[in-house]
Specification:
- By secondary structure, this protein is α/β, with parallel strands linked by helices.
- It folds into 2 domains: 84 residues, Winged helix-like DNA-binding domain superfamily/Winged helix DNA-binding domain (Arc Repressor Mutant, subunit A, Orthogonal Bundle), CATH 1.10.10.10; 210 residues, D-Maltodextrin-Binding Protein, domain 2 (3-Layer(aba) Sandwich).
- It is built from 12 helices and 11 strands.
- The radius of gyration is 34 Å and the shape is rod-shaped.
- The termini are far apart.
């Protein structure tokens, strides 16, 4: 027959508390229980182990010779349990898995890629795949997990209005041209004069946006020298000297060969949003990335606004 005594780790907690505090009253306060409860637990532990752990004195509880020996081992057990729990908590807190983020090409180097790199440095177990496209990938259909997109006002429509939305920034637009173009053809002093110039016009999905509508309203009869369905295509066309183009300041201002020739009136402003399907909110890696992106995006506000030191318009 096996007569070895054993114990439950929880029964050692009152033993450690009394040994450290010197009395059952002080131990009860440490553990948040009553003094009689501590006294019963100590008596039950001594009975189960078949030995006396404490000597009772009027001034309190003192460890017996065996109790002093067992205290060292109990503290080792306590440390091992703490280490075990700490490692378990780190495991549960460690993020892992894949996240697919989509954005338009101009946003990738300015804000999206730097934030992704910072997030992955903190959470190496997460792989973030960046889907760079002008197409609006359907989050509800699972084509991507998180999107960074610009809107005239805010996400609308039944599918997009149901998404989790966080506004990141308001991005103002302005009219740009090359210095060479301005030297040869001058520049408009008011919006209505844009019609006298060649323009680079948005095409495709961009043709229904606020920027395209503003150009169509201001200069419906302007000569269109180039069209593009991508923002980088518009930028390349205006940089080639094809004409005037309406661009986000975050794209136009950093270009050394472009000058800002006009500020639209009323201002043309698009709002940048971070979007995520609500079904992903309970998954730690998606929630962590979403919150991290919103927080970090504040550091990129100047870049999105086109705040370039020493930058001047042609005024």
């Amino acid at each position: 027959m096996n007569n070895r005594r054993s114990f439950d780790w929880d029964t050692l907690k009152p033993f450690l508390a009394v040994a450290r505090a010197g009395s059952t009253l002080a131990a009860a306060k440490l553990l948040g229980v009553s003094q009689p409860t501590i006294q019963r637990q100590i008596a039950a532990l001594e009975k189960s182990l078949g030995c006396q752990l404490f000597e009772r004195h009027p001034s309190g509880y003192r460890l017996s010779a065996l109790g002093a020996e067992l205290l060292l081992r109990a503290e080792q057990i306590e440390k091992a349990v703490d280490d075990f729990n700490r490692h378990l908590q780190l495991h549960h807190g460690r993020l892992a898995g894949a996240i697919r983020v989509t954005c338009a090409e101009p946003l990738a180097p300015v804000v999206v890629t730097p934030i992704i790199n910072a997030f992955q440095a903190r959470h190496p177990g997460v792989h973030v795949e960046l889907l760079i496209t002008e197409r609006l990938l359907d989050l509800a259909a699972g084509k991507a997990d998180i999107a960074v997109r610009g809107y005239d006002d805010r996400p609308r429509g039944e599918r997009e209005s149901a998404l989790i939305q966080r506004k990141l920034a308001d991005v103002a637009w302005a009219v740009y041209a090359t210095r060479t173009y301005v030297e040869h053809y001058g520049k408009p002093s008011v919006s209505e004069e844009i019609g006298r110039h060649a323009i680079v016009a948005p095409d495709g999905a961009f043709s229904s946006g606020r920027a395209a509508r503003w150009l169509q309203t201001i200069a419906p009869d302007a000569t269109v020298s180039a069209r593009s369905s991508t923002m980088l295509g518009l930028l390349a066309a205006v940089k080639s000297g094809s004409g005037l183009a309406l661009l986000p300041k975050g794209i136009g201002e950093p270009e050394p060969n472009l000058v800002r020739v006009l500020e639209p009136q009323p201002p043309v402003v698009l709002s940048l949003y971070l979007l995520m399907h609500p079904d992903l909110r309970s998954t730690p890696r998606f929630r962590a990335f979403f919150d991290f992106f919103v927080s970090e995006s504040r550091h990129y506000q100047p870049a999105l606004r086109g705040d370039v030191a020493g930058r001047r318009s042609t005024d």
